[in-house]
Amino acid sequence: MHWLKNDHWVKPDLKRYRWLLFWSLALGILTFMAAGALMFTSGYLIDFSARMPLFAAIYVPVVLTRAFGIGRPVFQYLERLTSHNWVLKVTSHMRRKLYQVLEGDAAFLQAHHQTGDLLSLLADDIGHIQNLYLRTVFPAVVAGGLTLIATLLLGWFDWLFALWIALLLLVQILLLPWWSLLVEKRRKSAQKRLNQEAYVALTDSVMGLSDWVITHRQAAFVDGAVAKPRQLAASMQRSKQFQWVRDLIGELFFGLIAVSFLVWTSKYWTGGKLIADWVGSFVLVVFPLNQAFSGVAQGVSEWPTSRDSLAHLNALTPVTRPLPQQLPAPTEVGTLTLAHLNFRYDQDSEPLITDLSLTIHRGEKLAILGPSGMGKTTLLQLVLGDLTPTHGQVALDGVNVLAYQDQRSSLFAVLDQSPFLFNTSILNNIRLGNEQASDEDVAAALQAVQLTDLIARLPQGVNTPMAESGFDFSGGERQRMALARILLQDAPIVLLDEPTVGLDPLTEQALLETMFTVLQDKTVLWVTHHLQGVSRCDQVIFLEDGALTMTGAPRELAATNARYRRLYALDAGEA
Amino acid sequence: MIDKRLMRLPGMRAVMMMLAGLTLVQAFVILGQGHFLALGIVHSWQLKTLAGLWPLIGWFAAAYALRQGLTWLKNRLAGHFAAKTAGQLQEDLMAHLFALGPRAVADAGTGNVVTMALDGIPETQNYIELILIKILNMMIIPIVLLVYIWVQHPVAGIALLLMFPVIILFMIILGYAARDKSETQYAGFQQMSNHFIDSLRGLKTLQLMGISRQYADNVYQVSESYRKQTMGVLKIAMLSSFAMDFFATLSIAVIAVFMGVDLLAGKLALYPAMVALILAPEYFMPIREFGSDYHATLNGKNALTAILAVLAAPLPTQTDALTALPAWTSTSTISAQDLSFQYSGKRAGVTRATFRFQGFEKVAIIGASGAGKSTLLNLLGGFLQPGNADSDQVNGEDATAMPFAINGQPLPHLAQENWQAHLSYIPQDPYIFAASIAANIRFYRPDADDEAVQQAADAAGILTWIQTLPTGFATRIGEGGRGISGGQAQRIALARTLLDTDRSIWLFDEPTAHLDIETEAALKDTMVPLFAGHLVIFATHRLHWLNQMDWVLVMQAGQVVAQGRPADLAQTSDAYHQLVHEMRGDFDALAEK
């Protein structure tokens, strides 16, 4: 139970909306009480009527029978609505909390790529906690409550018998769940691992299909693809077989309760004719309660999954970063200076940037070239202030950029390889750049990036959702949308991180044309993977192993540097 | 009620008959259980002794235990059959995908295919189990119980009989409502969780725009507004199951009251009334159980439909039409005459392409994106078959058309085992399997020894890098393994190809398009000498490769608009000139200044 101590994902929500929680549990108990009471009063009604009393005498049981008959479905309906409402309310809070935790996590934000899988996993964790409430906690609490009530009611008549029944019910709510947990714990974690492996195996098979096809090894392919899923299925099958056996045992124990009541009523309720009318009631009340207990063991055996998710979420401890005193952003921006910049992630890792110094004046265009993995993106992160240099600093008119982190978006704009566009309308996506922008401003930005024609062709214009089926925006079009967003943001310094990679040369050429036109007045740092368009820049630097190996104006380099000439010729198709 | 497609599954009929038999037995056992329970209650009610009650208790307990035992047995039988069938379906599915090739996967979407094979199979399994257990229960048990109750007390029998169609009616309404509502509800849930994942993915962007902090409230608001919508839907969706429950419990209450009145009038003995009361909930039990699993059956049905659709896709025939191709030599030829392929939808394919390559030529295919370069490569690799993608006939509108010829032998398509054995295909992002580097290089030749693997890695220019790794060739790469760069992935794919010396026909689909210029230059230095002794067919929009090529196909909107030696084309072809000029873009524009 050590997880309970450090938990900050379940406990706050149990307190929040506690009345809603109380009612959904109370209604759950009432549902089964009404179901039991229906059989109880019906049994009495029939037993009693068989004595042929006056009609008036059976009036009360008749009314009660009808009332409980209606009560059970009504309670169940209300219970379902209340519990779902509660869980969904809690989910909203958990989502905001997860978002806030990640938003405050410097490490998460620095990571260059966040794989969708990781994020889906985190979102799944919240789903597992929903299940914890709906499938494990609620049924267990309802069954526990019913056990308590049944024991107290029976204890009023015969405490020894009440004790015996309590013992049999404890088998249902403690012994069988405990046994399931014990048996299933290891199997569940194996299944989780196998599921992951099956996913990898199937992905490998499907993604690598063209390589497989030309080998003509169909048997090896099918075996490789289905081996893990088959193991997973076998393990799931063992789980099911266990569940069937466990449920059989549970039912047999339940049968023992029914038998106990038959014996008990025969001994306790046969003292006289009037008393014997209660025999049917006491025996029949047992059966509808079965359903309240049958789901408990299964729910509890799912606890390991929820526990993993809880542990996962509780382990999220955001990394915050020490920053200097934050300053308001300057209204005028001049020179960006990189002075003796050094960076490595920690003492043991290789240096990524070594003693790099550079000055970029207002409005200048700088191209950054170099093999991948040689620190180009790291350099941009340092300029942006996402990373803190090990030595040296990046300064804007003499002030360390780390002091502007709170106001950063008014100084720096970024366009990278695959800009993120939200699953909302084009208008909303572009307006993210500046939420105060008028429709005219947005239209002007779209005009500048030459998207006006494309948008005019869409049925809903700028209000077209990004994910609308049938419109697959191309890489170039998506980059233009992101560029429009940046134009609205209107930051004086723009960082471009290989925005044209993966585009064909014609699209690339057109996009570069647009980019350099609309960013004419901005300071631009452009990381690029080849030399197309580099001639438009004022300065070119080559980064290799974190250091500058070539630097100069493009024309200068073309005249004096053999290596530059060779790469240029290759890129131009002349080599 | 029972999906006819399921009945076609091998062994389904036999299992179903057996389970129907067991369910019938179980129905009588349930009857017996109710009978002895009622007798027991009447016994005590008559103030008789416990001694006389024991045999009744014994019979009741035996019937009860037998009933539960039968449930277990039915679960085992149905579960075993469903698992076996689902496993077989999965194998068939993968085998069929293999035969259909990568295009079929690309059309369906990789993610969809993986989901189908991973989640769709258990859903189908579940569906088979539900059909075998719950639907049979619903079809058999209520009838047996109804007949008995009718005999005991016709009024109760009539009440229960009348209630059944009412419940079925509600189930149909529930079915329609649930189909619509659950779809909107599911779409809502999906949208909500997608919006949330979307927010997490876009967090970095939001931060760059300086609005990440206030966006937290948006996350909450959106989640809350979906909650309100969802609750609105649930209120109605659950109303149908409420109605079903309501009629079931109310009818129990009603027959209790009816029988009370009859008993009062002395028209009825206690036993028939008691047994009817005990069996009434059992009568409704199967239908209520089915109702609670209704959604699972919908999912299973959809999954089965998707799987059967893949299994129904026709496979290429005549894959062994090419009689023999022991090796690709300097005199071997491959030619195409009026080769066409049309995708379904607007996307352009290839129209009437004609060409002939011989021996170890180096051929470039150039053109703007969407011009049909990749389609042509896929046709050459045998991953696509000529013709119309919409047509049912795999080999096109005219199954007798022979657009290809290898060494003069006419062929309908190139999904030929003897052709593909000499082939290697390297796309822009070669697939790296989740395995060791050595296993990745050995992919075409699992039996190759370590020395050969090392030589291949050396020739592909990646040996030095592998040797710097702490675990060398045993290093795991691919999903879940060490990340590698695009250039390294290309080199591993190259080593993979080099290891299998039978593979002397190389198809490249823009292998260097997304690499940086220095990596590209280094990779090119490695690749060009290796081209010797291979037929190389190379789709690219990087112009510098043309200097290494013997022959160039210029493609435009699916057509081969010009072909010839690069030097000749530069002299004679306007299309070639135009394309090269556009691709050079800035390089020309600035040179002209």
UniProtKB/TrEMBL annotation, chain A:
Coiled coil: none annotated. InterPro entries: AAA+_ATPase, ABC1_TM_dom, ABC1_TM_sf, ABC_CydC/D, ABC_transporter-like_ATP-bd, ABC_transporter-like_CS, P-loop_NTPase, Type_1_exporter. The chain crosses the membrane at residues 20-46, 52-71, 137-157, 163-183, 248-266. Pfam families: ABC_membrane, ABC_tran. CDD domains: ABCC_cytochrome_bd (cd03247). Its main location: membrane. Residues 336-570 form the ABC transporter domain. Keywords: ATP-binding, Membrane, Nucleotide-binding, Transmembrane, Transmembrane helix. It is a multi-pass membrane protein. Residues 22-305 form the ABC transmembrane type-1 domain. It comes from the Bacteria. PROSITE patterns: ABC_TM1F, ABC_TRANSPORTER_1, ABC_TRANSPORTER_2. This is Thiol reductant ABC exporter subunit CydC.
TrEMBL record, chain B:
CDD domains: ABC_6TM_AarD_CydD, ABCC_MRP_Like. The chain crosses the membrane at residues 50-66, 131-151, 157-178, 236-258. Residues 22-299 form the ABC transmembrane type-1 domain. It is a multi-pass membrane protein. It comes from the Bacteria. This is Thiol reductant ABC exporter subunit CydD. Its main location: membrane. It is found in: Cell membrane. Signal peptide: none annotated. The keyword Nucleotide-binding applies. Residues 334-582 form the ABC transporter domain. The keyword Membrane applies. It comes from Lacticaseibacillus yichunensis. Pfam families: ABC_membrane, ABC_tran. Keywords: ATP-binding, Membrane, Nucleotide-binding, Transmembrane, Transmembrane helix. NCBIfam families: CydD.
